[in-house]
Each structure stands twice: as C-alpha cells, then as structure tokens.
Amino acid sequence: MIEYSQSENRMVLKLVYYGPAMSGKTTNLLTLHELLAKDDRGDLMVLDTVDDRTIFFDLLPFFLVAPSGLKIKVKVFTVPGQVKHDATRKAVLQRADGVVFVADSQIKEQMNNATSFENLEQNLSLVGIDIEAVPLVIQFNKRDLKEIIEAAEIDRLWSSSGLPVLFSSALKGDGVVETFAAITGQVYEHLDEKFGLAALHGLAKDAFVDQLCRLRGSDGDQA
Amino acid sequence: MNRHSEQIEYLVGQEHDLPALFQSLEVRGLLHEALNAGVLQVLIKLEDGSAVCSEGTQNSAAAGREIRMPLSLEGERVGHLLVRGREGDDALDAVAGILRSAISVVMHNNLKRMMTAEMHTSLVTTTYDELLSKNLELSASETRYRELAQNLEVKVRERTEELGRAHARLLQQEKLASIGQLAAGVAHEINNPIGFINSNLATLRKYVGRLLEMLDWYRLQPASAGQLNEAADLKARELKLEMVKGDVWDLLDQSLAGAERVRKIVADLKGVSHVDEAYGATFDLRLEVERTLSVMRAQLPVDATVQCDLVDTPPVAGNGALFCQALVNLIQNAVQAVPSSLVLKLGSFRSPGKVVFSVADNGSGVSEELRSRIFDPFFSTRDVGAGTGMGLAVVYDIVKNCGGSISVGDAPGGGALFTMEFPLLSQEGV
Q1: CA–CA dist A2, B389 (Å, integer)
Q2: How close B162 comes to chain A (CA, Å)?
Q3: Could you give the C-alpha distances from B147 to B139, B140, B144, B175, in angstroms and in order?
Q4: Fewer CB within 10 Å: N-end or C-end of chain B?
Q5: B83, B39 in Cβ contact below 8 A?
C-alpha cells in the first residue's frame, strides 16, 4: 500500500502488471483505459518510452469512495520487461498490493516467461513482499496468435501453484477486464481482512470490483 | 553510504497535491490571459476552500456570473476552478472551458515530469548506493588481494631460498658421491703399490736382521784370518747372504717405484681436486682432461677404450676442479650407459672465439624428446633410486659457471655426443 491515512480517511493502493518484455503489459493498460468508464479514473500516463518499449512505467489511476467516506485510490502500474531495467522493476514493485503476471502465450517465449517469473519471485522477496501472501494472478496473453502453448498444458503446469490463470488477447480487448476484475477481487479480500472494508466502510467486494471495472457507456458513465 | 537512501525516500506512486503541481508561473500566466479575455476574476481552490492561485479582483458590482469547474488529479477530485465574469459575457463559458483544459494539461504534464524526475532520482540513488557498496566490496577485496600478493612475495622468496638451499645441498651430495667413487678408484690404485711396498719392507727387515747378525759375529771372532774366512763363509751361507745381496736391490727399486706411483696418484688427485689452487682462475683444458683420465682409469671397465684427440688450447675461464668434476660425471654417465665394450672419444678443437670440447660414447644415444630435459635437476632415465638425476644437472651448472654452454646430440655412428663450448678469454683465438 502506498499510503493509508486514518485521519484523512484515505488509502492509496498499488497494482503492478509484471512480466517478460513484449508480453503486453502496457497493452493491458491501454485496453483498460479504452474499455473502462472514464469518470473516477485518471488518464493513462505513459512515461517516456524508447522505441515503444517502457523504460520507467505506465500508470493508470482509479478513484472511488466507499459508503463510509473512505477514499480509495488504485494506481495500476506496468514495469519495463527488459532485463536491463531490473532496478526500475524493483522500485515499482515496492509496497505493491497485487501483481498481475502477464505471460506471453507463444511457445518460443516460455523460457522468457519462466525467467521473468523467477525475477518476480526474487524482486518480491527483495522488497519484502511475501509471494505466498500477495494477491497474484497469471494472465496468458496473445491467445489470438498461432503457435501458442495450449490452454490444457498451461492448466497442467500452473494448477499446482493454486494461482488463478486467465487467458487474454489484450490487443483485441479479450480477457483484459476479466484479469483486472480477478486481481481487484483478490486485493479486496486481502484488504477486507485488515481494514474491514465491508464491516467498517460498507464496501462490498462486488461494489469494489464493479466500480473499478465499470465499462464505458454503462450506467453512470458521464463521458 | 546509507545516508543517500535515508535522504531520498521515494516510493513509486506516492501522492502529489495540487499546490506542488502549480509552482511555476505558467498557470498564473494562463489566468492572467483569461482576464484579458474579459473575465473579472479567476481562482483555483482546493477542496477545503483555500485558494492556490488567483487573478483579478472581486468586483461585487460588476460580477454577475460565476462558473465552477472541478479539477481532478489521477481521477480524484482535488479542487476546482472558479471563473467570475460579467453578466451577459457570451465568451465566459468558452474561456472557462479552455482554461480548465489548459490547466488539466499543465497538471498532467507536471505530474508526469515530477514522476519521471523522481523515478530517475530513485534509480540514480539506488544505482549509486549499489556502486558505493560494490566499491566498498571491491576495495576490501583489493586490500585482501594486496595482502595476499605481499605475503605471496614473501612466501615465494622463502620457498625460493629453500629450493636454492636444497639444490645446493643436492649438488654437494652429488659432488660427495663422485668424490666417493673417485676415492674408491684411487684407493684401489694406491692399495696395490702399498701392498708390495709393505711386503718388501717386511722382507727387508728380515734381511737387515741377518746382515746385522753377520756384523756382530765378525766383531766376536778371534783374529786369525785364515780361520775367519772359512768361518765367515760358513756363517754367510747359514744366513743366505748371497741371496739377500741379490734380492735387496730389487726390493728397494720396486718399493721406490711403488712409492713413486703413489706420489703420482696423489699429485693427480690434488690436481683434479685443485686443493692448492685459488678458486675461479683459468684452467688448461688438455691438462685437466689428462689428469681426470689418469685418476678415472681404474674405474673404467677393462674392455673400455678411450680415444683422445686433444689439441693445445688457450686457457679457459673457470675453475679447473669443477671442470674435472663435470668430466667425471660425463664419463661415469657413459660407463653406466654402455656396460660393455665402451668406446669413449674425447676431443677438443679451437673455433673462432671459443674452445670446443666433446665427449662421445657408443651407447644408444639420447632420444630427441629427452634432450630438452636431461639437464634438468632430478631428471633420470634410470630406475628410481638408481640415479639421483643430478649428474648432468651438475655438468650443466659447471659449464654455465665457466661461461660456456653444453648441448647433446648424436655421435657419428650412434651414441651420445656431449659438446661443450667455452668462450676464449681474449681475442687471440679469433
């Protein structure tokens, strides 16, 4: 958590999209930005890129208020996937409340997925986050491509981890909001235990997730 | 080094409030331009009502219309823009809209710039901290290695000295071994003459006894010449003086010759060991070879032949005793290499600027791959324990000490050929 102030009745959360280079982390955020309702969220902030590759991070902020008046800001970050930006990844990962690991479904990228996941495990432990406890979902992206690893194989490989695995095609907009809903749902449960979101603030899980994942053009969108 | 990390504690995603984004004059300029467009007053206020920025004055008489527009930062409402204008100012809405958009863009861009700067600073700080700690580690390991290197030098020096002492000890042992062999040969040589000198002296002692007895007898006889002669003959016969007379000269001659042989051997031995000479002078190669051969001859097998083809050469720099030692080693080597019918060929000749001396045998020679190693200390082709591996190393050292060089090759008709080259002292040989 970036910030929690009881006096201001305010909390700022951090979600991080992690994964190997070119797996579609920024595309996930771009798609969320495009699909989700415009009010109560800020603009997508793409910090400087080189050749369209993230070098610092991208940020998509959301804002909501619980019935109790608790202000909740959710800042969704991406990290640069290239190996050389490890220091940046570590900095972004600090005090994350949830992580989405965006894997590349292409068969030739499986090695990079594994390396990047190892890197995630290592960096989480370096910044003092317990990988067993932190909300974490796996997204296998680029399902629209050919020569991809089969869903059954992915299930077989990942079922033992107990982590939710989602399939997406970020460029086409498939599975992106579902992934976001999955991670925000987990984050809610995690927070509810500590802060009593439902009991003390009257904020139910569905309300939390629905408000964050409200699609553009649905009720209440004033854009 | 941790000071840096403590000073800049930056968390990616940390919050920025509105005043932090309006430090520059750019927003004030925008507001001012709005006044030029006919707006009476423009204010930017936080949610709690405090003003961050304002331009123009509130003219209660003229102010007729007020437009409030929310300002959001990262989706969160953080304040609002207040535009007051005259009643009936048609452009007021448009100006307010433009102003809000412009301010939003400025906020967004400033936020982005700040985040970039913070991220950059954070990375630089971590990188610098890492560099510092790496630097510390490196200098620590450098210190460790420097200490190691210094110790190493001391260690190497100690070991080298130890090796040097061991080497010197081995050379000494090798020398003693050769001296021992030499002594055995010399003992054999001397034993023979001493043996017959001894036996001759015993016989002579007996003879001298008889002669003295004869003399005593003469002294005791009464003075009658005729009777005396007869009696004396009888006594002389009794003492076998006739035989003594014939033998005594032989015995003396033989003993003298034997004593002379012993004297010569001792002289040669002294020559070979050079006990009387100062160390490091020059030596006559031919003389030393001949001396060594005369001492060594007893050690050569009976069926061995030595062929010498030596010329007179100018004196060679170096210690003659050491040269003899080298030659002894080479000859012993040849004797061991060729157990029967050894033919040893020694030769010397002058060549421009140097004297060349060679020792050849008729054994099986030294194979090509062994040639570079046979002069190494401890290198031996003989069974373990049979050879010290020091013989040729000693030869090499001695020739080196004389300023010369030694090499091994094939002798004509097979066998090993050792060639030594000694530089001439002066220009006379050129």
Answers
A1: 80
A2: 53
A3: 12, 11, 5, 41
A4: C
A5: yes
Contact between A201 and A191 (Cβ < 8 Å): no
- Contact criterion met (CB < 8 Å) for A63 and B75: yes
Contact yes or no for B402/B323 (Cβ under 8 A): yes
Residues B67 and B96 sit within 8 Å (Cβ to Cβ): yes
Condensed to tens digits (0 to 9), the pLDDT of residues A134-186 reads: 999 999 999 999 999 999 999 999 999 899 999 999 999 999 999 999 999 99
A vs B, Cβ pairs < 8 A, gives 67
Residues in chain B closer than 8 A to A128 (CB atoms): none
Window 75-94 of A, Cβ < 8 Å to B: 75, 77, 87-88, 90-92, 94
> Pick from B48, B55, B57, B58: which is nearest to B18 by CA?
B48
For chain A, say whether B122 makes contact (Cβ under 8 Å).
Answer: yes
* DSSP designation for B24: S
Q: How far apart are CA A57 and CA B119, in angstroms?
A: 9
Q: What is the CA radius of gyration of chain A?
A: 17
Q: How far apart are CA A70 and CA A66, in angstroms?
A: 5
The alpha carbon of residue A47 is apart from the nearest alpha carbon of chain B, in Å, by 7
Indicate the average pLDDT of chain B: 81
Question: Quick check: ipTM above 0.85?
Answer: no
CB contacts of A87 in chain B (<8 Å) are 123, 126-127
pLDDT tens-place string over residues A42-92: 888 888 777 778 778 899 999 999 999 999 999 999 999 988 889 899 999
Tokens 């190997």 belong to residue: A20
Chain A contact present for B119, CB below 8 A: yes
Closest Cα in chain B, distance from residue A92 (Å) = 6
Which chain A residues are closer than 8 Å to B116 by Cβ? 47-48, 56
Secondary structure of B175-202 as H, E, C letters: HHHHHHHHHHHHHHHHHHHHHHHHHHHH
CA nearest to A2, candidates A69, A74, A88: A74
pLDDT at B52: 85
Residue of A91, A97, A90 whose CA lies nearest to A119:
A90
Closest approach of chain A CAs to the CA of B132, in angstroms?
15
CB A12 within 8 A of CB B73: no
Q: What is the average pLDDT across A119-147?
A: 95
First-last CA distance in chain B: 75
Which of A40, A42, A91 has the CB atom closest to B122's CB atom?
A91
Q: Encoding tokens for residue B16?
A: 């920025």
What pLDDT, in 10s, does the model give residues B116-125?
888 888 888 8
pLDDT in tens, A27-43: 999 999 999 988 878 88
Q: From the list B74, B116, B123, which residue is nearest A63 (CB)?
A: B74
pLDDT above 70 coverage of chain A, percent:
97
| Residues recorded for chain A | 223
Structure tokens at B263: 């004297």
B126 — contact with chain A (CB < 8 Å)? Answer: yes
Contact with chain B for residue A158, Cβ under 8 A: no
Q: Out of A42, A87, A91, whose CB is closest to B75?
A: A42
Q: Which amino acid is at A186?
A: Q
Q: Which of A36, A71, A76, A94 to mutate to test the interface with B (most CBs of B within 10 A)?
A: A94
B9–chain A Cβ distance below 8 A for any pair? no
